[in-house]
Design brief:
The structure holds two protein chains of two kinds. Helix content of chain A is 74%, strand content 0%. Chain A is mostly helical. Chain A has one domain. The radius of gyration of chain A is 18 Å and the shape is elongated. By secondary structure, chain B is mostly helical. In chain B, 80% of the residues lie in helices and 0% in strands. Chain B has three helices and no strands. The chains are: A mainly alpha, B mainly alpha.
Chain lengths: 140, 81
C-alpha cells in the first residue's frame, strides 16, 4: 500500500537519484564507479518509481520498446567502438590507435568515457527490465 | 588487525550463517540485505570503493528487490513449519 508520504518522497528522490547515477557514469574514468554502477542506480530509480506508484506509471516512463532500444544501443555502441579499433588495425578495444586529431592519451580518455556511457545505457535499461518483467502480471 | 576490523569481518560470517538458518524467507532476504551492506563497508575498509559501490547498488538494492518480488509472487507448499 502506498501513501501520500511515500509518493511525495519518491517524486522528490527520483530526479536526484538519476542525477547521481549519471554523475557516476560520466565520472567513471576518474573516480570510483563507472558505467555499471551508475547504470544500476539509474535503473533502481525506475524501480523506486514502480514500487512507490505502480507498475504502469513506471511503464509509461520507460516502456518496453524504449528499454529494448536503449539495451541494444548500449551493446551496439560498446561493440562498435571495439570493432572500430579492429578496423583501423589494432586489437579489440585498443583505443589509442583510433585516428583522431588529438594526443593518443586524450583519445584513450575519450573512448573510455564513451565505453562507460555505452555500458551505462545498457545496464540502466537492463536493471529496470529485470524488475518490471518479473513484477508484471502473468496470466497463468 | 585491530578490534574494529575483527568485529567488522566477523559480522558477514555470522550473517551468512544466519541466512541459512532463518526459516522465514522474507526475514532471510532482509538478513542478506544487511550482509550486503556490511560487505560494502568491508570493501571500503579494504580500499576497494569500486567493488563497494557495486555491492551496495546490486547486492543491497537490485538483488533484494528481485528476491522480495519473487517471494510475493510464489507460494509456500511445505508441510512442516
Amino acid at each position: 500500500m502506498t501513501t501520500i508520504v511515500i509518493k511525495t518522497i519518491a517524486r522528490v528522490l527520483v530526479p536526484f537519484l538519476q542525477l547521481f547515477g549519471f554523475y557516476i557514469i560520466v565520472h567513471g574514468p576518474v573516480s570510483p564507479g563507472g558505467g555499471f554502477q551508475g547504470g544500476v542506480i539509474v535503473g533502481a530509480s525506475m524501480i523506486l518509481l514502480a514500487l512507490s506508484y505502480d507498475l504502469s506509471s513506471a511503464e509509461d516512463r520507460a516502456s518496453h520498446k524504449v528499454r529494448i532500444i536503449m539495451d541494444s544501443t548500449g551493446a551496439l555502441l560498446f561493440a562498435g567502438i571495439g570493432l572500430l579499433c579492429l578496423l583501423v588495425g589494432g586489437v579489440f578495444l585498443e583505443y589509442g590507435i583510433i585516428p583522431l586529431p588529438m594526443a593518443p592519451a586524450e583519445v584513450r580518455g575519450l573512448m573510455i568515457l564513451l565505453v562507460g556511457v555505452a555500458i551505462g545505457i545498457h545496464i540502466m535499461a537492463l536493471a529496470a527490465s529485470l524488475f518490471l518483467h518479473l513484477a508484471e502480471e502473468h496470466d497463468t | 588487525m585491530g578490534i574494529f576490523e575483527f568485529i567488522l569481518m566477523s559480522f558477514p560470517i555470522l550473517l551468512a550463517i544466519a541466512v541459512v538458518f532463518v526459516r522465514d524467507l522474507l526475514a532471510a532476504t532482509v538478513v542478506f540485505l544487511v550482509y550486503s551492506l556490511i560487505m560494502a563497508i568491508v570493501f571500503t575498509q579494504l580500499k576497494a570503493p569500486d567493488v563497494a559501490l557495486t555491492e551496495a547498488a546490486v547486492g543491497a538494492g537490485i538483488t533484494t528487490l528481485l528476491f522480495i518480488v519473487t517471494i510475493a509472487k510464489t507460494t509456500r507448499r511445505e508441510e512442516d513449519d
